[in-house]
Amino acid sequence: MRVLITGINGFVGRILKDNLAGQGKEVFGIDLSCAGENNFSLDITDLAAVNDCLHRVRPDFIVHLSAISRVDFDNVGTLYSTNVSGTMNLLYGAARLDRQPKFLMVSSSQVYGIVPEKEQPITENTGIRPVNHYGASKAAAENICHAFNREYGIPVVIARPFNHIGRGQSLNFVVPKIICAFRDGKKELELGNVNVLRDFLDVRDVIDAYNRIMENFQSGEVFNISSGRGIKVIDIIKILENQTCRDMKIITKNDLLRKNDITCSIGDYSKIRKSLGWEPVHPIEDTIKWIIDEAV
Questions:
Q1: Is residue 246 part of a domain?
Q2: Cis peptide upstream of residue 101 (ω within 30 degrees of 0)
Q3: What's this model's pTM, rounded to 2 decimal places?
Q4: The dihedral of CA 119, 123, 129, 131: what is its sign?
Q5: How much is the mean pLDDT over the chain?
Q6: Strand duo 2-6 + 26-31: pairing
Q7: Among 128, 227, 242, 291, whose Cα sits 20 to 30 Å from the Cα of 140?
């Protein structure tokens, strides 16, 4: 089996690559800068380069991870170009192959936007109402996937992962930023709203979900990937304090508060559990310890 991973140098891409290679699958990768025999350095907004790559690889699966994933990314044009036009280019290139690959579109829980707590946990039937450009770009990419599925018959599954954490994640995200502060022995840390309620899950559980989707590919389906449990950022800090025996003073900075902050986001994963037998197995406490054991 030949699997092409876009964004292979990213947080999830690197872990997924090792996981698939360990299963004996032939793994190829796309990223802006990507070394190695089976990797292609290219920008997915370049249609000609994408077409050339796909014709050379002729993958059985495309796992589309490549995206600008920062909610606060301020170059809106680049964000939409990468997340929307880049997705369209991959699908267009896939449609032109003699044997169309299965396409796993990794979207985001951000497409749901602000959902009232009484309507949570969030299911796949919850309305799509993004409140930031990242969520809007992912919602647009999802619609493009559905259109290519119906117009050209490309097999597509959409995954909507909620917040996931693990080793190697960028410091632009709150949990690795907090862990880095503990690792560096800091006494205080500047953060935004630490009382937001998030659905955090282990990246290894996310990888397991992607594997199960590929093994039993149900074209046209949309799956939440979540823990079903909400936890506040302040509670993650308390877990770290207990595990490291260190105290951390939190300083709330107004410039770190988001205008359209999603204060509560908890996902329902019952659909993927019933369809594919997936459920998370790593408690948040174990995940944080796994990260800390490497970083501190």
A1: no
A2: no
A3: 0.95
A4: positive
A5: 94
A6: parallel
A7: 227
